[in-house]
């Protein structure tokens, strides 16, 4: 999505760049050299951003592909460049190394670091079988299927080469220990994804460790195959330490010199162990294991903490890694146990190590992902409460604003520069707001038509597949005659898409289907409910919630006399997400407050002007603006001891669903009978929420934690983004 030609690029050959680790494509050589020099500077003026998952499919944001198409660069006399052109123009668009919001947030964050020229590298794992692919059967529910993909064929991905052995993959060695306190070597190849800025004048490298190679032990290969492989506790523990233990060997092999390590959740916190061990050796000498005392470990941890920034993403207990001390005895050496006994202890569970607690104790800055989440996290971790600040999440506006909306914004004089600065929307003074509103409505209708056409095609495909596969289509409408099963554009459409977990209460609004249907029948209001998302393969309660959505379809259709259609879209990914957030008329979020730490899908809808219909949880507490941008329902009172419970008896289904039923008629009446007022909510979202809930602003807030020396022009730009919003008002 770009309407600007990158400066100083006059031929496709100028997008080829090289260094001792290989040949790459996407930015000029001068840009590549500049970035690499910044990341390897002796001044250590850069950051390593560590995340277990990174959502960066090149099918929703693809500046290099856009440039090639706009400049009609499809052919080259150089066969090597031609291969790259073919890959970028026609190659696969999926990198399935993410499961949901955490990974997509990581990808959006890195895109904004690239756009704003912040010296950051990212580190994650490359999963040869990705995250699972989802099939959905109306009788069975979710069916988990292995994902197959080819990193070699995927644009933006490059396998690094060994400088000492041309033509051979770079292979790094990562040391682990076994139950006998003996070292074990694992090997990993290194891939680099180039997250290129919109103007192709900067990039953030994402380094992905590929442990699934013959030279690694079988247990390492298996743990590295699939994201969040939780078939056993030891598999889960190994995957986490493969991420954390690989960070220092990777940066040293590449000659990179980050001074700060930003842990995007605690999955990679094992790197802190390695840094503490190095610090102990530095102060006590090579025999430190025999000489160290508890106070030496605490002192070393305090020194290491000056290099760690930590973002916590959830108040939910299942989101915090805990491992039995007995398990860790078998996979690490005695010195590690000593450190963990001091720093990863869990008062509520003395027989386990709590890695969230470990990350909370060893850092120079902790941030939550919304203001409400900050308050909850302070209650959960009172020992470090004073240290916990809010940096509310955002989304990458260039990725999530639809092409039709973007075209409108490009052609609106008062929004000049919106691509570089989403803060432009805050000062949007339109000479002819009525005309803008009409054009926004037309763009919205085109996006809704595209989404509905996708759904109708999907329903037809599912009906056809009944004859050729054993899968029973997941949608009731696929079993009806074609003329009875087409959705219509322009019908009020509600979107819901996220991970299926019990606390997110995907089935909340269907708690009393007769009451819901009665609202529609009395007023003859049509409505579409579009649901998508995956449950973790080991989350049986989450799968049960997904199955309930399927089971409610026929009853809702029948009781509403066909006015309500409930559709489930299998295989949720970033491409489907972009269609949904721009094509629906409202975005539904129904978690039990305050268990949704942030929630970014609703921000993506707001980027397109789409109002939210949400419980007052996570980001919506900050984005609601007293009803100017959407609606609230459900309990929003004080938090108490039951608030963090996920027990079925505490999930407030009856209370919050009734609150939704009281609100829904007001929403539908506004949409169908006072549409101008509905459109005002859309314009309000652009003015009030786009400037706040974007990753440019969020990245700028993170930069304030990084202690970087930035060029004057970059620093000035970052300071302007920091002025857009203060997640932590006390920092103003």
Automatic annotation (TrEMBL):
GO molecular function: glycogen phosphorylase activity; pyridoxal phosphate binding
Essential cofactor(s): pyridoxal 5'-phosphate
Residues the record lists as N6-(pyridoxal phosphate)lysine modifications: 604
InterPro entries per record: Agluc_phsphrylas, Glyco_trans_35, Glycogen/Maltodextrin_Phosph, Pyridoxal_P_attach_site
Annotated keywords: Carbohydrate metabolism, Glycosyltransferase, Pyridoxal phosphate, Transferase
Reactions it catalyzes: [(1->4)-alpha-D-glucosyl](n) + phosphate = [(1->4)-alpha-D-glucosyl](n-1) + alpha-D-glucose 1-phosphate
Alphabetical GO biological process terms: carbohydrate metabolic process
Pfam (any one): Phosphorylase
EC number, as in UniProt: 2.4.1.1
Classification via NCBIfam families: more_P_ylases
Its biological purpose: Phosphorylase is an important allosteric enzyme in carbohydrate metabolism. Enzymes from different sources differ in their regulatory mechanisms and in their natural substrates. However, all known phosphorylases share catalytic and structural properties.
Protein family according to the UniProt entry: Belongs to the glycogen phosphorylase family.
Protein name: glycogen phosphorylase
Organism lineage string: Bacteria, Pseudomonadati, Thermodesulfobacteriota, Desulfobulbia, Desulfobulbales
């Amino acid at each position: 999505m770009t309407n600007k030609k990158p400066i100083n690029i006059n031929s496709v050959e100028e997008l080829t760049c090289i260094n001792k680790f290989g040949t790459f494509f996407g930015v000029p050589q001068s840009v590549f050299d500049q970035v690499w020099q910044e990341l390897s500077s002796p001044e250590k003026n850069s950051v390593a951003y560590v995340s277990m998952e990174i959502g960066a499919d090149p099918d929703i944001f693809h500046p290099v592909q856009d440039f090639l198409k706009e400049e009609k660069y499809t052919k080259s006399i150089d066969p090597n460049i031609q291969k790259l052109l073919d890959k970028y123009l026609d190659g696969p668009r999926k990198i399935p190394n993410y499961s949901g919001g955490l990974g997509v947030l990581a990808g959006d964050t890195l895109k904004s670091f690239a756009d704003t020229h912040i010296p950051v590298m990212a580190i994650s794992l490359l999963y040869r079988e990705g995250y699972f692919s989802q099939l959905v059967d109306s009788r069975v529910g979710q069916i988990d299927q292995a994902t197959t993909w080819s990193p070699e064929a995927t644009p933006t991905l490059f396998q690094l080469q060994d400088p000492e052995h041309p033509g051979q993959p770079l292979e790094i060695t990562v040391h682990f220990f076994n139950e006998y306190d003996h070292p074990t070597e694992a090997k990993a190849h290194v891939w680099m994804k180039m997250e290129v800025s919109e103007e192709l004048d900067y990039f953030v490298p994402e380094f992905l460790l590929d442990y699934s190679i013959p030279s690694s032990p079988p247990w390492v290969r298996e743990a590295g195959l699939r994201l969040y492989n939780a078939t056993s506790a030891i598999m889960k523990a190994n995957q986490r330490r493969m991420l954390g233990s690989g960070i220092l060997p990777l940066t040293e092999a590449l000659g990179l010199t980050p001074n700060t390590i930003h842990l995007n959740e605690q999955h990679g916190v094992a790197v802190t162990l390695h840094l503490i061990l190095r610090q102990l050796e530095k102060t006590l000498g090579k025999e430190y294991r025999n000489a160290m005392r508890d106070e030496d470990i605490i002192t070393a941890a305090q020194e290491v903490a000056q290099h760690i920034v930590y973002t916590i993403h959830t108040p939910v207990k299942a989101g915090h890694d805990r491992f039995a001390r007995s398990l860790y005895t078998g996979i690490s050496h005695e010195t590690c146990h000593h450190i963990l006994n001091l720093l990863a202890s869990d008062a509520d569970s003395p027989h386990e190590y709590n890695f969230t607690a470990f990350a909370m104790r060893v850092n120079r800055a902790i941030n939550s992902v919304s203001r409400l989440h900050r308050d909850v996290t302070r209650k959960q971790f009172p020992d470090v409460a004073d240290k916990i600040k809010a940096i509310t999440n955002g989304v990458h506006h260039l990725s999530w604003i639809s092409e039709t909306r973007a075209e409108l914004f490009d052609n609106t004089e008062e929004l000049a520069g919106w691509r570089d600065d989403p803060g432009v929307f805050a000062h949007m003074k339109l000479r002819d707001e009525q005309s803008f509103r009409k054009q926004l409505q037309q763009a919205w209708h085109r996006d809704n038509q595209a989404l509905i056409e996708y759904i109708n095609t999907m329903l037809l495909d599912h009906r056809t597949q009944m004859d050729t596969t054993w899968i029973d289509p997941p949608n009731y409408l696929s079993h009806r005659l074609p003329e009875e099963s087409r959705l219509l554009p322009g019908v009020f459409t509600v979107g819901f898409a996220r991970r299926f977990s019990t606390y997110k209460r995907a089935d909340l609004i269907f708690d009393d289907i007769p009451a819901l249907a009665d609202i529609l029948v009395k007023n003859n209001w049509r409505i579409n409910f579009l649901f998508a998302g995956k449950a973790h393969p080991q989350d049986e309660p989450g799968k049960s919630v997904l199955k309930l959505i399927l089971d409610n379809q026929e009853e809702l259709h029948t009781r509403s006399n066909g006015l309500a259609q409930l559709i489930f879209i299998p295989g949720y990914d970033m491409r489907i997400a972009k269609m949904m957030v721009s094509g629906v008329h409202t975005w539904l979020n129904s978690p039990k407050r305050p268990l949704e730490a942030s929630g970014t899908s609703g921000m993506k809808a707001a980027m397109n002007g789409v109002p939210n219909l949400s419980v007052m949880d996570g980001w919506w507490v900050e984005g609601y603006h007293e009803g100017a941008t959407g609606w609230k329902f459900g309990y929003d009172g004080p938090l108490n001891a039951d608030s963090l419970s996920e027990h079925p008896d505490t999930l407030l289904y009856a209370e919050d669903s009734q609150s939704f039923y009281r609100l829904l008629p007001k929403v539908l009446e506004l949409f169908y009978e006072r549409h101008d007022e509905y459109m005002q909510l859309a314009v309000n979202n652009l003015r009030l929420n786009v400037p706040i809930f974007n990753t440019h602003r969020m990245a700028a807030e993170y930069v304030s934690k990084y202690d970087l020396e930035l060029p004057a022009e970059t620093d000035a730009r970052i300071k302007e983004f920091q002025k857009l919003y203060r997640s932590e008002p006390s920092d103003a």
